Structures are given as structure tokens and as C-alpha cells.
Amino acid sequence: MSVTQQLARVRAELPEGVTLVAVSKTHPAELIREAYDAGQRIFGESRPQELREKYELLPKDIEWHMIGHLQTNKVKYIAPFVQLIHSVDSARLAEAIQTQAARCGRVIDILLEIHVAREQTKSGWDPAQLRDYLAANPFAQLPNLRVRGVMGIATNTDDETVIRSDFECLKRCFEELKPAFGGDFDTLSMGMSHDFRLAVACGSTMVRVGSLIFGERDYSK
User: Fold this and answer.
1) Per-residue b/e over 80-96, b at no fewer than 16 CB within 10 Å?
2) What is the pLDDT of residues 41-78, one digit of tens each?
3) Where are the domains of the chain?
4) C-alpha distances in angstroms, 112 versus 2, 7, 9, 125?
5) Sorting pLDDT into bands at 50, 70 and 90, what band is 121?
6) Which class is 3-206 in CATH?
7) Nearest C-alpha neighbor of 51 from the set 64, 34, 36, 70
């Protein structure tokens, strides 16, 4: 099945109001172009240098999202054009994005990544630590950042009860934080190829789907 056909199948499953991020990491520009020609405009990448290279090659009306762990010294590669950074998981990273956004004269939209999975290897704020950080109103000192919502990754398991619990935790965090940020705080990014349907049922407003659109990734690249 072609990328165009697979993209159409995923879109058909998404209710109105849920945004699809087509996760194109490790996939070549030609496949991204096929999805673009089929009407997709939002793509997600996890490596800053790869994202920069694809930005140079592909149409400029693409909305690029950074969805993977981001090192502070790599922010400079994407700050001039990235539309949304999903993976802000520390005060240090937020400050680095502020520095680069100001240097570019931009306001960059971000999501706060929250750790809900049972694997400790996954990144993200512990919910209690995030509450402590936000209590000092740090974003008042980061005017080139706009906090749009939260992101998280569920536990890698076939147990739907565990996955649902993770998504419900993220939803509660989103609702708890929303009053502090106001109307711009409208994005709950959760759900990937294997669990996006459950994420949507739990209130996700943005899903990150890759292999169901582009096929399995080549991790050797």
C-alpha cells in the first residue's frame, strides 16, 4: 500500500479536532513529498540535523515538529523554523530554546513533556517536579516561548489497562495546568502508531503516527 493510501486510512480514523503529525524520522524526503502531495502539512522529526536537512529540501509551507529528545546544544539547528517542540523536559532546555528563539526574533511554541511510562529510560518531567518548577512562574522570564500544552509517551506494553492509565494521567496533568496558561494551552500530544486510537479515546488532541503511514523505520541510518 502506498504512503498516500496509508495516510488516508489513518486520517479516516481521526475525529475532527485531532491533529495528525506524520512522523517522518529516518524516512527519505521522497516519501515525505508523497505525503505532502496527498495534503499532509505537519511532519515530526527526532534528530535536529536531519530535520534541518529536510527543511532545506522540502516545501516551506511544511510545519515541522521536533518530537524527540532535544539536547540544548542542538536547539540552534532548528530554532529558525521549527513550529512546535514537543519534548521540553527540563528548565535548562527551556532556557536554551529561549536564547535561540530570541536570537532568531521568533516566539517558539513548545509542549512540556511529562513522564508517565513505567520505563525509566523515557524522558520527561515528573509531574510533581513540574508543579514545583511552574510554581515560580518561570515562563514570565522566557518571553520567546509559548507553552501550548503537554506531551507524553505511554508505557511500551500490550496491556491496554496500563496504557489507558498513562494517558489518563497525562490528561489530568493537562487539565490541571491549563488554567495557569490560558487559551493558548490547547494541545495534548499523546498516541503513536500502536496506541493512537486509545489516546484519542482518552482525550488526545494531537497524535504522532509514523510506521502506519511510512512503514517501519530503518534504525541503521
Assistant:
1) ebbebbbbbbbeebbeb
2) 999 999 999 999 999 999 999 999 999 999 999 999 99
3) 3-206
4) 34, 27, 29, 8
5) confident
6) alpha beta
7) 64
